[in-house]
Amino acid sequence: QVQLVESGGGLVQAGGSLRLSCAASGRTFSTYYMGWFRQAPGKEREFVLAIYWSGSTTYYADSVKGRFTISRDNAKNTLYLQMNSLKPEDTAIYYCAAADRSSSWYRPVDKEYDYWGQGTQVTVSS
Questions:
Q1: 35 to each of 14, 15, 75, how far by Cα in Å?
Q2: What's residue 83's pLDDT?
Q3: How deeply is 108 buried, as exposed, middle or buried, from its count of CB atoms within 10 A (0-12, 13-18, 19+)?
Q4: What percent of the chain has pLDDT over 70?
Q5: Is 72 exposed, middle or buried (0-12, 13-18, 19+ CB in 10 A)?
């Protein structure tokens, strides 16, 4: 059974940084797309970035390009979302998601992902 567990959220001032983690278990994720999504209060869940676990290309939402990066620790089956230069509009619950698809699949749409974590709150104060 696939499990995704996010951690690392918290309260940070604008301009600060946070690193979120997504610990994945229950599968070999080398053939999975891994995505990060976020949902702010009163808004729909939106795409942040995605990467094919065994690939090198990262897809970013325009709103986070140049500020957020992703990395992974294969030995720990863990993804990391490094968020720099945070803005108040980055405040949201951040979710890790997984989809068992081919490397050419890529979809920045939450409904296309099969597995989700419980989310971690990120609050950026101005």
A1: 24, 24, 19
A2: 98
A3: middle
A4: 100
A5: middle
